[in-house]
Amino acid sequence: MNPEVLSHIDRLTGDDLPAYVYDLHALREHVRAVRAALPERAELLYAAKANSDARLLRVLADHVDGFEVASGGELGHVRALFPDIPIAFGGPGKTPAELAEAARLGVSRLHIESAHELRLLTTVLGDRSIDILLRVNLPLTPGPVALVMGGRPSPFGLEPAQLDGCLAVIADDQRLRLRGLHVHLASGLHAPGHLDLAEDVLTWARDWAQAHHIDLTEVNIGGGMGVDYAHPDQRFDWAAFGAGLHRLLSRHRNLTVRIEPGRSLTAYCGWYVTEVLDVKHSHGEAFAVLRGGTHHLRTPAAKQHNQPFRIIPVDTWPHPWPRPQARREPVTLVGQLCTPKDVLAHRVPVRQLRCGDRIAFAMAGAYAWNISHHDFLMHPAPAFRHLDKAPLTADVS
Ligand SMILES: *Cc1c(COP(=O)(O)O)cnc(C)c1O
């Protein structure tokens, strides 16, 4: 945690909590380093679904080649913020209205998920043309990862054999410009695993293109760069990934490779900060009840992990009775929801955790607030604070 973030948290009053605190400076440094690690011929998109907060997108926009969006809502949001930035539009179940909007707003790439979707597109294009990638569900096994999206039965993308039907539609329609393939097979891969997969994907894509006499110029190999919530310091090795991609590209000379990470770009810049409302013991186990919960930060419930956190001690205790606390024992951190699933961290050993202390959950910048069930129990929403360095500015938006 940057000292600026810590001192900002110290200055928040109880009424300001819970709060999402975004460290825009850290985000900028991170995305800059990611971009610098990648070969020039690799394009970097940010998958907006990880966190579409406008202030974060503004920082990212200066360092990425564009944004990947997965709905008409995200498309409109990103286009309104950035009239000119390249946008790739992917995701299953695009409606005719969304396809028409993609054509109208001029997305730079549309990722086609099925032959039906491609045919629907031809009915809404009018006299516009559009650049497309066919999303393939390749029979490749990515190994043990968090979320497998392909290589087995999946609603995402086309089977290799189904590509032929799409090629026939494209051959018949001048408005459809096939630019290449899109393959997002898994999330949660470490750099060596991701490179192995990328190598298999590019080899497959080259063979496929040769067999179909297609001049393949680009492949989007997706996102899914691993984020390890159990080891916050062990980050995806972008330097190794970039070097490996460089070697790979030297064997695919005319190919542009594009990646579209989400989580690995924004997870680390966000903190969900709150306070301990109560500490209780029940059947021999300690529970800390926090202001807020998984309706603000659903990530640990969704991924079934302990959200990493740090305790920020608050030494004042305003009441005449003894301060509820846990000492040198495992504590389960729960929220205010009336469900046993409202757990942010399970049986984590602490030296001391007291009622009134603050908790800052780390790695809350991706798939956090925006995947949470905000309205459940009608608790107030958190505040959102965006910190940047020198001069330190914070605002509530
Ligand atoms: C979700 C998604 C991404 C981003 O995945 P991360 O794990 O956040 O990097 C990229 N591409 C597609 C098609 C996706 O569905």
Automatic annotation (TrEMBL):
Cofactor(s) demanded: pyridoxal 5'-phosphate
Record-annotated Orn/DAP/Arg decarboxylase 2 N-terminal domain positions: 26-267
SUPFAM superfamilies according to UniProt: Alanine racemase C-terminal domain-like (SSF50621), PLP-binding barrel (SSF51419)
Residue numbers annotated as active site: C338 (proton donor)
Record has Chaperone as a keyword: no
InterPro entries: Ala_racemase/Decarboxylase_C (IPR009006), De-COase2_C (IPR022643), De-COase2_N (IPR022644), Orn/DAP/Arg_de-COase (IPR000183), Orn_de-COase (IPR002433), PLP-binding_barrel (IPR029066)
GO BP terms, alphabetized: lysine biosynthetic process via diaminopimelate; polyamine biosynthetic process
Residues with N6-(pyridoxal phosphate)lysine modification: K49
Domain Orn/DAP/Arg decarboxylase 2 C-terminal: start-end pairs: 20-365
Keyword annotations from UniProtKB, A to Z: Pyridoxal phosphate
MF annotations from Gene Ontology: diaminopimelate decarboxylase activity
PANTHER family linked to this entry: DIAMINOPIMELATE DECARBOXYLASE (PTHR43727), GROUP IV DECARBOXYLASE (PTHR43727:SF2)
Protein family membership: Belongs to the Orn/Lys/Arg decarboxylase class-II family.
Protein name stated in the entry: Decarboxylase
Organism in which the protein naturally occurs: Streptomyces diastatochromogenes
Organism placement in taxonomy: Bacteria, Bacillati, Actinomycetota, Actinomycetes, Kitasatosporales
